[in-house]
Amino acid sequence: MQESVTGTHATGISRLAYYMSGATHENLLIVLHGITNNSLAQSRIAQEMNSQWRVMLVDGLGHGLSARFTAEDAEHPLEAAASEVVALIRQFSPAQRHFKTVVVAHSWGGALAGRVAAQVPELIDAMVLEDPAWLNEEWLAYFRTELPKEIEHFERIRQDPEKELAQTRRDNPEWPVDEMIGWLQGKCLVDAGMLRLGVAGDPRGVEAARHISVPTLIVSGDGDSIIVGPEGLQRIEEMHNPALTTALLPGASHAIRRDQPEQFYALVKEYLRSVLASEEE
Questions:
Q1: Which of 69, 112, 167, 201 can pair with 73 through a Cys bridge, CB separation 3.0 to 4.6 Å?
Q2: In this structure, are residues 127 and 217 in contact, taking their beta carbons and an 8 Å threshold?
Q3: Which CATH number goes with the domain that contains 268?
Q4: Per the domain annotation, does 125 fall within a domain?
């Protein structure tokens, strides 16, 4: 039997909202979403993994039901968002624990996860990063310009969500409907103040990977809107960081898990199984 709960910590340790499922299992899998999305846009991960894990779908700072960005947060938005994830992990995964904690993260969430793992590697046993938002100069310039423009677009979505949902289904017929609805909800709930900042990822680009010491699988593709891509994966391999493993799924766009779900989830499950098994030997 599985239970789902929602928790919000507006005061105390963390300001993030989350959904939890697979509660009978001690091992914890924390899921971080991309920019302007929310936890429910990652619902398929819970369905795939919560027979083996407690799965926590997290609303990032400024997203979903989590706290909005304060003026202080806005001074260093990526660091502020990452610090909230650190606080949440500390609450649910103390250093002296008897279970495993892993992070699966997409895009902006992947950029946060990389920073989190660098800060508290003792609290994380492994990570899977789906095309993390390690942004080069071109991507940084794009988001600085385009992200604030989304405020007006998202207001139109709030006025007529049915129209946006119908268009999204036409544009992305392969997307799971449950995640599509979560994606739409994310646009309706995102913090406009955060969008004005134009910050959607880590400005260090793939160099951010150098600072990761936690066993980490980095998955990318070569389709539309890919951030890391084959070139980025090659650069990561050339770092010779023993903690890092790379995987390329040809034809996949930035939403890898939706384009190629069978291949993506097979990679995730096998990687986590092998890494965690080797740590126990």
A1: 69
A2: yes
A3: 3.40.50.1820
A4: yes
